[in-house]
Amino acid sequence: MDKGKDPRLHIVTVTGIIEKDGKYLILKRSEREVAFPGFWTVPGGKLVRHEYENLPRTTDVAWYGIVDHVLKKEIKEEAGLEVEGIKYLTDLTFIRPDDVPVITLSYYCKYKSGDVKLGKDMVDFAWVTPAEAEKYKLISGISDEIKEVDHILKNQTS
What is the pLDDT of residue 13? Predict the structure, then answer.
């Protein structure tokens, strides 16, 4: 690790598992990505200060709801879709190949509207069942998260 880096600082990312008619959206990452080039994943992205600091604060010193805001923005940028009903699923931490630690907050949500339009960092997409997801070169853990969301949604009471 570079001596100039603060080991306490992490990149924070959010991801969204989008359900539509019993299938889940997966996206293929570009080969030029630092972490997991060419792998399949779900939409998401980094929390970046300049993307929220000019938004109105919800208290005199803070912003509530920024994770939802960023997740909706990233899903729109990466997949061209609108989503609703965002719910927390889990978190994970890993260290990128460039030695940067990442905390990922994983959420799930329902498709609301739009047609998939890939953003600049994605090269392909598919709507898959949990069983179909296993046939793709997914980032480790994504398939398990899709199965978990599928289980949650199928067992919700109306």
Answer: 95
